[in-house]
Amino acid sequence: MTRGKQKIEAQRRNAEKNQKPKGSQMEARAVALKASCPICKVQLANAKQLGDHYTSKHPKERPPAESS
């Protein structure tokens, strides 16, 4: 009989371990994205990506200062 109980306990532990983490990927993405383009409102991770975005998508415009 102990084997049956051990099996049930192991299944319960595995179910707890395999649960999806709380929170969504959208929340994590919002935290990671720091910079945004004021022209097209695309969100980027850092200022370097914002500079690259400006050179490829808005070549006639100047990128904003690093502080924004």
Automatic annotation (TrEMBL):
Stretches that traverse the bilayer: none
* Basic and acidic residues bias: start-end ranges: 1-19
Q: Which InterPro entries match?
A: MBS1/2-like (IPR045230), ZNF706/At2g23090_sf (IPR026939), Znf_C2H2_type (IPR013087)
Span list, region Disordered? 1-27
Organism in which the protein naturally occurs:
Theobroma cacao (Cacao)
Q: Please state what the protein is called.
A: C2H2-type domain-containing protein
Main location, first listed in the record: cytoplasm
Q: Which domain of life is it from?
A: Eukaryota
**Which Gene3D superfamilies does the UniProt record give?**
At2g23090-like
